[in-house]
Amino acid sequence: MLHYYLCNTHHRMIEELLPKYILDFTLFAYLLLNITSEFCRQ
What we know:
mainly alpha
């Protein structure tokens, strides 16, 4: 019972957190690319 609960909670947590992390990472990567291209253009 406890094992089942832990696995479900863990899985749900990953499903909730992963999209947020992916979104943050994409935004960060996008900003980094913009800053780098602006810096290199000068």
